[in-house]
Amino acid sequence: MDDPMNHRGLNGGLPPVPESPVPVLQDTGQGVTVYYKNRYLYSRVRPDSAVSRMVSSLSIRPETLVCCFSPALDYGLEALLERLPENAAVLAVEHDTALYELALSRLPVRVRNDLRFSFIHAGSLDTVREYLASRDPGTIRRCISVDMSGGTALYPGFYHSIIPMIDEMISRFWKNRMTLVRMGRLYSRNLFRNLGRVPGSRRFMPSSVCRPILVLGAGPSLDSGLEKVLSFGDSFFIIAVDSALNPLLKRGILPDCVIALESQLANEKAFIGAAGSRIDLLADLTSRGQIIAVLGGEPTFFFSEFADTGFLRKLRSLKVLPVSIPALGSVGVAAVYLALSLRANNAPVFFAGLDFSYLPGKTHCRESPAHRMALDSADRLSPDGNPAAAYREGCFPISGKNGKRFISDPALCGYGQLFCSCFSTAAALYDLGDSGVNTGRPLCTEDEAAGIVLDWNQRHHGGGAWDRAPFMDTDDPGLARRIRELFDSEEEALLLLRRFLITGEGTPDEVLGLLENREYLYLHFPDGHKKPSADTGFLKRVRSEIDFFLKDIRIARLLLDG
User: Fold this and answer.
1) Which residues fall within 8 angstroms of residue 142, CB to CB, at 6 or more apart?
2) Is the CB of residue 247 less than 8 Å from the CB of residue 362?
3) 3-state SS assignment for residue 40
4) Could you say which DSSP state residue 154 is in?
């Protein structure tokens, strides 16, 4: 016969609890605990003591998101809200349906109605990700977590994954903000001017290239990869990134199109020596406008969604934007993304020269702008190459393909990780490079690539000639009119806003109404992620931007009228 004292020793004086598919509440005499899935989720003596100690010991800074995991009961929530500093918030997360329903039923009205508190039932990490995407991301700079009950031990993998995911989302948002502070005005100015060029260009047509595609970057591995390209003859539709253009032309390889993503003046160096080559250009709508006519081929635009703003949503509703892609940052990643969109019949896509790393003294392939600059600046004391690039602060060694050692940095490594995450499930995407980071795609030799191309050709072309139909559609006949109306309405609104800010005629509501959906005026401000304000300092900064954009709109209208 069991000794009843043993039960008291094991359960802290509580009677045995039969197995139950739902949480069972038990009164300890000093509070309520929960028994669920063969375990007590709180202490069997003073259930609220551990949570109270954890909450009181938290160091919470402003703009912190406090993640409360598995708050089966309401212990500690009111005390936590009382301790929150300015602009901090609480996110309660529960993975288990039964525990979520229990917690929701016991949530105090004061906690439930507090605007700083949110409670979500997260069956997967996507639910947490969607919640964060629905918030104003500029209000969060860091996150901390606290386990509110033993329920976290039921799903440790899930709860342990949340904070790294949130940290990554916060980091990505603020990195993007720094990019927009530095480049946002240039993106917007190039966008206006290139919109004036769009009606005279061809339209991007997905699933229109009926050939295997080869994407070529300008990484060091392109030097060896070009021998493979020459051996393939005319088997591929070749897409080159801008900095790989001259290396290809120097070896007698004429790509079918070149992709340009860069907004700055430095991008023009990639096109030196290629004027009049009549190669088609795939250009981002935010890319530098001066390169559009250099090659002499047919330009086609795409749009990298560098921000989610009311103005860009308006452009999309007016159907004046070309095909859109995510803001990928890397021209090589964008080239592969567009290649997968262009291919028809699941044609194989190969890539080379996308290394996301380098060796000391050789950051790019021969004849690329970086290589030419190293040669041009070489002298007796500073010989060929750029070995210092491998020893900058932040650089680190990595183990790449075939176990070889290479140098990378946070930016390149980030692009490599982005490549892997974007294309991890892409079908028929092969890596022809023999060096650089592991891209997560099957490595392919020259003979293997030839076999894949031959097999696809026989299945889709019967071994006959390639289909050389244009891969871009004709323009939209009503597009020029819609863009001209956009320019007219924006110019009219900016002139009125300028008058209001100079004379003080307009009310604050009228001024803010004119700023609505015109984020290009302030997106590049350090506080540009916030809503526009009637604050005098903010409006003075806006006033200084208006003349620049009026000039850009007038130049864009001249380009439109051609």
Assistant:
1) 61, 63, 64, 65, 170
2) no
3) strand
4) G
Q: Which helix (H) or strand (E) holds 526?
A: none
Burial category of 19 from C-beta neighbours within 10 Å (exposed 0-12, middle 13-18, buried 19 and up): exposed
Residue with tokens 């917007």: 188
Query: In tens digits, what is the pLDDT along the chain, a chain of 562 residues?
Result: 333 333 334 445 555 565 667 888 988 888 899 999 888 999 888 898 899 999 999 999 999 999 999 999 999 999 999 999 988 999 999 999 999 999 999 999 999 999 999 999 999 999 999 988 888 777 889 999 999 999 999 999 999 999 999 998 898 888 889 999 999 999 999 999 999 999 988 888 888 888 899 999 988 888 877 777 777 777 889 999 998 888 888 888 889 899 998 888 877 888 887 888 888 899 999 998 888 888 887 789 999 999 989 999 999 999 999 999 998 989 999 999 999 999 988 999 999 989 888 777 777 777 777 767 776 666 766 666 666 665 667 777 877 787 778 888 888 888 888 899 899 899 999 998 888 888 889 988 888 988 998 889 888 875 544 454 455 666 678 899 999 999 999 999 999 999 999 998 889 999 999 999 999 999 999 988 888 989 999 999 999 999 999 999 999 999 998 7
Angle at 133 between CA 129 and CA 136, to 5 degrees: 140
Q: How far apart are CA 92 and CA 79, in angstroms?
A: 14
Q: Which of 317, 332, 305 is nearest to 412 (CA)?
A: 332
In the block, which residue shows the tokens 């050692």? 405
Question: What domains appear along the chain, each with residue ranges and CATH number?
Answer: 4-171 (3.40.50), 202-473 (no CATH), 475-561 (no CATH)
pTM over 0.85: no
Q: Where are the beta strands (DSSP E) in 20-126?
A: 24-27, 32-36, 39-40, 64-69, 89-94, 117-121
Residue-wise DSSP of 343-390? BSTT--EEEES--S-BBTTBSS-TTSHHHHHHHHT--SSS-SS-GGGG
Write the CA distances from 355 to 97, 352, 363, 437, 528, integer angstroms: 45, 8, 10, 6, 34
Tokens of 454: 């031959």
Q: Convert 160-213 into a string of H (helix), E (strand) and C (coil).
A: HHHHHHHHHHHHHHHHHHHHHHHHHHHHHHHHHHHHCCHHHCEEECCCCECCCE
- What are the phi and psi torsion angles at 256 (to 5°)? -75, -30
Question: Torsions phi, psi of 134, nearest 5?
Answer: -80, -15
Distance between CA atoms of residues 491 and 91, nearest Å: 44
